[in-house]
Amino acid sequence: MGPKYHIGTSGWVYPHWRDVFYPPKLPQSKWLEFYTRHFHTVELNNSFYRLPSEKAFSNWRDTSPEGFIYAVKVSRFITHIKRLKEVEEPVETFLSRARHLKKKLGPLLYQLPPNMRRNDERLDAFLSLLPRGLRHVVEFRHESWLDEEVFDILRKYNIGFCVFDMPGLACPLMATANFAYIRFHGASGLYWSCYSDEELEDWAQKISALGKDLDTVYIYFNNDAQGFATRNAQTLTGKLAKEL
Prior knowledge:
Blueprint: E1 4-10, H1 31-35, E2 41-44, H2 54-62, E3 69-73, H3 76-81, H4 88-98, E4 105-111, H5 120-129, E5 136-139, H6 148-156, E6 160-165, E7 179-184, H7 197-211, E8 216-221, H8 228-243
Parallel strand pairs: 1-2, 1-8, 2-3, 3-4, 4-5, 5-6, 6-7, 7-8
């Protein structure tokens, strides 16, 4: 049996998706309900900018169907301001909120800033404080981190490596845990370019090969311009279904 593919978009509240993905007269309060008819996972990204309330997480839990999965992008206060140092308390606070998603809580994504260079000791110390029983993923944005010794640190704690596709920085397609996590930011233009069917066919074959030894593969499209993310996510879903 092949891996479970969870494919969606990074966020769902984009005004420019009206008329492109959302019906023109559908109120924004109904957008999540509409989104969940087409996808069974989403990457929460507003949580990166401000800490959602317990009520917000509970509402997302209660207004989505059974089996729906939320990946959660962790606060930039932890990754960009504190830069993984002395973060026990903010991590505990953030996770206590996110846990209100209960069974719908998927991976927690820690995206490091692009100017943060490799520091194995700091990474190891940070990963050691993350609670087991949850799925954690690190997205590196500086090329110095893309090294086998860093990947070994992730493997030690069964922490996911975030595979990303974006212009200007090559990333290996790999997994360091029993699951994989992939973000598509746009191949030719960051956040705004659309993937062709041929590109997605190639990705489907590579992702299928990667997923053979994994139990889950999480995939999110972050190229929100003109609703490309929704279109690309639906196309890749169909192509991966053929690979199973």
